[in-house]
Amino acid sequence: MRIAVLMLAALVLATDARAESDWNSAIGWQTFEAGLVAAKEQKKPVCLVFYTDWCPHCTDYSRVFHDARVVAQSKAFVMVRVNRDQHVELSNRFAPDGNYIPRTLFLGSDGAIAAEIVTDRPDFKYFYNTKKPESLLAGMEKAAAKLGSK
Fold it and tell me: Domain range spanning residue 140?
């Protein structure tokens, strides 16, 4: 009986974690390939987010994209979200300081990494605060100023 209760509790927790990982479809997320095409056509920078479905930090980070300020700022970018586990080679290509998750990089409309747009974390430069939108907003503001629409 005790094992059945523990298994049920684990199932509920796993289901809750998946249900809470909502990346806000209002953002207009694109695949990497479609995002690069859109960035060139629209002459907009790219906000590229690597995540996984199992990562608790990614679940927390997904909530940041519901902040009204982040939604508004996202309009200045082509927003791309990539599951690291499903796109390992792509993730490895965009891992200047490691393949950790969540990892957010800003790219020019040509697809080149703006490596200098980083957080204040010396060990994980592209790991924005997963619970405070202000962290990502600071990165978005830097990227918009440097890469802006051309």
Answer: 22-147
